[in-house]
């Protein structure tokens, strides 16, 4: 369940970042309220995930998914630039997130076996 909470928290993180960009320096009420709600939702679900996951793994995965999601949607919604170097960097981030998930699973399997 912790990984589901972490995925939900990551969605809130992406919404938070994109809404912050749309606030125009917090002069737009709707995006500003969405930013605050998304920040609260992200932190709440992250805290639920961290009840089980190590903070280093949970926080890193949360920010990694949030970063990649923000870049993908920022490119689509705000027409931000994308190049091969950015794409490569994001592939590396995704690899790191998957590696942390596998390492966490392996560590828990080792604990229950021993």
Automatic annotation (TrEMBL):
Entries under InterPro entries matching the protein: EmrE-like (IPR037185), Small_drug/metabolite_transptr (IPR000390), Small_multidrug_res (IPR045324)
Topology relative to the membrane: Multi-pass membrane protein
Domain of life the protein comes from: Bacteria
The keyword Transmembrane is annotated on this UniProt entry: yes
Primary location recorded for the protein, binned into one broad class: membrane
One Pfam family cited in the UniProt record for this chain: Multi_Drug_Res
Transmembrane segments: 33-50, 57-78, 84-103
Localisation: Cell membrane
Keywords from the named record: Cell membrane, Membrane, Transmembrane, Transmembrane helix, Transport
Family: Belongs to the drug/metabolite transporter (DMT) superfamily. Small multidrug resistance (SMR) (TC 2.A.7.1) family.
This protein's name: Multidrug efflux SMR transporter
Organism, as annotated: Nonomuraea helvata
Phylogenetic placement of the source organism: Bacteria, Bacillati, Actinomycetota, Actinomycetes, Streptosporangiales
């Amino acid at each position: 369940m912790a990984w589901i909470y972490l995925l939900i928290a990551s969605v809130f993180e992406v919404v938070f970042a994109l809404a912050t960009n749309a606030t125009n320096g917090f002069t737009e009420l709707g995006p500003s309220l969405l930013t605050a709600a998304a920040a609260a939702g992200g932190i709440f679900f992250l805290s639920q995930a961290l009840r089980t996951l190590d903070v280093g793994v949970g926080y890193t995965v949360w920010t990694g998914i949030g970063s990649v999601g923000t870049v993908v949607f920022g490119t689509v919604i705000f027409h931000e630039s994308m190049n091969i170097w950015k794409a490569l960097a994001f592939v590396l981030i995704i690899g790191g997130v998957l590696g942390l998930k596998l390492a966490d699973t392996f560590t828990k399997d080792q604990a229950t076996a021993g």
